[in-house]
Structures are given as C-alpha cells and as structure tokens.
Task: structure prediction
Amino acid sequence: MKFNNRNVYISPKARIGQNVKIGDNTTIYDNVIIGDNSIIANDCIIGEPLHDYYHNENYDNPETIIGENAMIRSHTIIYANSTFGKNFSTGHRVTIREHSKFGDNCRLGTVTDIQGYVEFGNNCWLHSNVHIGQKSKIGNFVFIYPYVVLTNDPTPPSDICIGATIGDFSQIAVGTVLLPATKIGKHCLVGAQSLVGGEYEDYSLIIGNPGKRIKDVRDMKNRETGISHYPWPYNFDRGMPWIEEGFEKWKVKNGFEND
Amino acid sequence: MKFNNRNVYISPKARIGQNVKIGDNTTIYDNVIIGDNSIIANDCIIGEPLHDYYHNENYDNPETIIGENAMIRSHTIIYANSTFGKNFSTGHRVTIREHSKFGDNCRLGTVTDIQGYVEFGNNCWLHSNVHIGQKSKIGNFVFIYPYVVLTNDPTPPSDICIGATIGDFSQIAVGTVLLPATKIGKHCLVGAQSLVGGEYEDYSLIIGNPGKRIKDVRDMKNRETGISHYPWPYNFDRGMPWIEEGFEKWKVKNGFEND
Amino acid sequence: MKFNNRNVYISPKARIGQNVKIGDNTTIYDNVIIGDNSIIANDCIIGEPLHDYYHNENYDNPETIIGENAMIRSHTIIYANSTFGKNFSTGHRVTIREHSKFGDNCRLGTVTDIQGYVEFGNNCWLHSNVHIGQKSKIGNFVFIYPYVVLTNDPTPPSDICIGATIGDFSQIAVGTVLLPATKIGKHCLVGAQSLVGGEYEDYSLIIGNPGKRIKDVRDMKNRETGISHYPWPYNFDRGMPWIEEGFEKWKVKNGFEND
Result:
C-alpha cells in the first residue's frame, strides 16, 4: 500500500542499510547514512543541505547518521550534520536543524521543531509541537509535553545564546517556557504553563508564572492512594528498558544507582 | 490551474464519489470513501495506515469515511479509521490520527493536531494550531481558538488517559490549556491563556491561571451597548444553520430548546 | 544536489526572474512574479488560488509578487494576492494567506502562520510558530518570538475584527498573546508568556497576565554592566542595515531620527 517507489530521490552518495523502506515523494540527499530496518515515510527530506550550500560551489554535504530501526513519519525534514541513535522515531512534519545529537530510543512528536546545536541523551520523548532552541542540553529519560518552548536569548535581540539544561528523568508539562540558561535538575516536574528561569535542585516540583519550587516531588501524595507517583520510573515502564526487571534493579546495572 | 492529475496515487480499493477533485501529489490509500462534490487539495495523505500496518502481513486498512462536500486543504494527513460528516473542512497541514469522529459542518484550522480517539459533534470550528489529546469529547457548536491544548494525563508519564469534555456552544479562547478530566458545561467562555481544571456549570466565564469561574457569561455586559454578547448564538449566525430564521426559532426545532 | 527539476509545475502565466532556482515537487500558479536571484525550495506552493477559485468559472488568479533575492524554504504555502519586498525569507512549512504585505528584509520562521489582510514594514523577523491574525499592522524592525499569537475578535465568535498594532523596533517575547486592538508603541519589550491588551506608550516594558507596563525599557539595567540593552538597535546589528555605520548615524539618514 505504501512504498510504491513513486517519485523517490535517493542520492547515489547516500548509504541505505538493509531492509530500509523509503516512502513516496521522499528525497534523501548526499552523505545520509540510514541504519538497517528503518522506515522513512512519504514526503520527507533527509540530509537537507546547510545554508552554506547556496553560496559555496565546493560544498560537500556533511554526514547525517540515522541509527537502525528508525521510524521517520511523513513530511519530516532533517538537516545534514546530525546524529540519531537506534530506534529513533518522529511524528509528522518534524523539523530538525543541523548539529543535533540524539541518543538511542528518542521520539519526537508531530510538528516538533529542533533548532539545531542541541544534545539529547537516551530515551527522551518529546510530544507534539515542542520547540527546542539552540544550545539546549537534555539528559536521559526526559519527557517534554506539547507547546513547551526552550529559549536561549536573555535580552532579545542579542548575540548571546545560552540554552536551558534538563537533568535525567525530568518532566516538562504542556505549554511551559524555559527561559535562557535555566537549569532543571534530575527527577523534576515542571507544571503546565509555567514560566521558569533559574536553577532547580533534583526532585523539585516547579509551578507558576514566575515559576517557583513548591515542594519535593516525592511529597506529592496521590489523594486516593496516599503514594507519590514520583520518581515516576518506579511507576511507569511502558517502552522503558526496565519494563521486565523493574527500575530498582535496572538502575543499579545501568549507572543510575543514585536515582 | 489546480487538479492537473500530476503524481496522484489513488488506491484501487478507495471509493471516490461523483465530482470529486484530487490535488497533485496527493495519496489516497485503501478503503478511503470520499463523498460527492469533495475537494482534496495537493500533497495530502488520506487513509494513512495505522501502526499495525508495519508489523502485520495481513493488515487490512480500516475504512476512512469523508462525507460529501468536504474541502481538505493541502498538506493534510488523515489516518485511516476515522469518520467525518458532510461539509468537513481543514486548513493546511492538519494531522488527524485514527479513531476520530466528527459530525457535520466541522472545520479544523491550519496545523491543528487531532491525536485520535476523540469525538466531536456538529458544527465545531477549531482555529489554527489547536491540539486535541486522546479521549477528548466535544459537543456541538464548540469553537476552539489558536494554541489551545486539551490534555489527558494527570500524572505524566502514566498510562492513565482521561480527556476533557466540552459542552455545546462553549468557546475556548486562544492559548488555554484544559487539564485532564476537565468538564466544561454548555455555553461557557474560557478566557485566553487560562489553565483550567475541574468541572464548570453551564454559562460559566472561566479565566486565569489557575482558571476560576468569575461570573455567568450572561452578566458580561458590553460597555457600549449594555447587552451581553453571550449566549452568542443569539448574536452570531455566519455559517450557522440558524442564519435565516434566527437561533430562537431554530433551537426549538432542532432539539436545543433548553439553550 | 537540490534543484533537479523533478516534478516541478510552473504555470505558463508565472513570471520567473533571472537566476531563480525552483525546488523539486514545487508548484507555482498563475500570475506569480518572482524576482531575480530567488530560491524557492522543495514542496512549496506559491500563488495558491483564493477560495473564489472553487466557485467562479472565470476566476483569474491575482498577482503574487516576491521581490528579488528571496529564500522560500521547503513546504511553504503562499496564497495569491500578496506582496513581498526584497530579501524575503521563510523557514519551513510557513503558511501565508492572501492580502499580506511585507516590506524588505522580512523573515518568517518555521510553521509561522500569517492569516492574511496584514501589513508589515521592513526588517521584521518572526521566529518559529508565530500566529498573526487578520488586520494586524506591524511597523519596521519588529521581532516576534516563538508561539506568539496576535488576535482580533474581542467577543468570540463575532464578525468584529480589530487587529493589534506594533510600533517600530518593538520586541514581543515567546508565548505572549496580544488581545484584539492592542496597541504597542515603538521600542517596547513585551515579556514572555504575557497576556496583553490596551495601549502602551513608546519604550514600555510590559509583563504579566494581565500584562502591565512595569517600567521604561531604558531603565532595565544589566546586573553586570549597569547599562540597558534597550533601545536594542544601539547594541545589536547582525543583519541590520546599520551594521557598518552604527544606529546613531544610520537613523538620521533613514528617517528614524526620533528613535
């Protein structure tokens, strides 16, 4: 039904792995490397040349490396000079600019916009319509919900660019803005529609405009159960590597023993 | 000018009505049913297969039913297994996931993102860039303005999914977030950039972060006229079925006599 | 690498300047005029017919005029009946409806949505995912950051449409909503995630929900330097016409002597 090889362009300089499917109307430019068993759906552009291409006759497209088992949904645009670990997936219409580095098992939702020059660890899940400014640095197992924006210019417009950082396991809820240079620790929860600047210690619940640390997430008791959902890895395992043995055992084997 | 039949793919298993126009570069997959006099513009994907397609050799695409007189604008993606009443229209780049059910005369604005497993009544108008989370349930004549988000996970991340519900004739203004399980009654007005949780009775004006019921919308007097614009159906009829006879008469004939 | 002339449609009634490059899968409709040395990248639609096209057999597509040296990035849709000065650029997936007028050197970021019937001066830079409602009027050197929305209906839904106006050199930070009929003076700074209505004098710092004038931007001293970054043209010149001689000299020669 899909993958009819209609109007597909693959550069002879691209390196396509085994058992890769390329959707109709998709374009893959020079020096794109796609891992085995990946799916690139319809109407995508992979390895979009950088701006220099338009001005430099000797332009050579930098490598774009997509790990094995990727699922790139339709209308996604990925610039050259980025790296994606295995099991990378996108929703539709995702835009990823150059110099973006993603670990394994990352997922980006529909319309999400990665401005480039960013770094993500493993297992980060971004929902629809997230905007990640340049120089953002995100840890592992960080989930970011719709319409969150990470900014980087403290006095717009200027040439200063200081991205936000987010520690492992932290959650940034819908509609929140992180101001430039914000540092969110590990296992934090930032509430919906907050406007957050400054630095926050691990396990902070941060809420409001302006955002403030309200309490320790471990003290957020569920009204019915009397138990805190956080740290969430003890209570959520769908798609997580600890799904079989539980977070308690998994974390010790995987270098997260202090979490 | 348009509809040159360039690079169009229509599955032989699709059923296309009379006098339907299909735009260039558009793909229509198996078991899509399109009603008479509809327009599907350029670069659309209709009947996108569900995730199971990639894993199941015997996958059979579920039906996608688009009523008569539809206008689907360019770059829209609609997954299989959804139903749309007559006169359905979308702006550009709309994404609609599976198990979405829309009544008659619904309109979705540019970049709007319907996450699937949702239900809309008749005559709902969503403006640009609205995000509707799974399990949302929306009545009739509901208008939702740009950058509104309906959420569903009370303790992210979790496997709990409780959508918001919105009653007939309610209006959700720009940039507002409805928290999981929020229940908005009929004829309510939720002000711009509010963060709203909980349950609200009919005719509520709800504003703020956190959102609160401020007053009855019928008590919002216009400074110049001294009259309330709400309930709005008495004061707005562009594109509405009561445009000829007025809301007062129309509502009695159409089962809205208590409105 | 790009510009392979694959699946390109250019109306014989379009007028394409010298040294223009048109990307693969792009469609250019009747009466589009593109200035010399422009680049229209892949998968774009330029000169999209207005709604009347579908109902009027004698429809004649109005002119769409794009000045010289434009850079229209991929997946952008521009309706007929708009005018763009020289050096116009867009990110990806920009949507521009009819009756939009842009001066020289304007830039629109990825996913930005211009609803039409708007007017921009010269050198306006809109970042990603900005939404500009109809009847907005924006001066020169105005910068608008991601997820900002300019609205126009004071009592939704209604047929009243009063756009916001923004004076020269003003900055609207991320996630802010301007309510209908808002008037922002020159050299103002509107802080992130504000909800702003009313009228504001020149040099206002406006912050909050509801937004209020907090102080004069010239009194915002930098903690380290003790100097205000604002008015910013004295401190930022990347891509600005005063980059060589400085704002002080430039403004006098160019009619901005009172700034």
About this structure: The interface with chain A takes residues 7, 9, 11, 25, 27, 29-30, 43, 45, 48-49, 53-54, 61, 75, 77, 93, 95, 111, 113, 115, 129, 131, 147, 149, 151, 155-159, 175, 177, 179, 193, 195, 209 of chain B (CB under 8 Å). DSSP finds one helix and 31 strands in chain B. The CA atoms of residues 35 and 140 of chain B lie 22 Å apart.
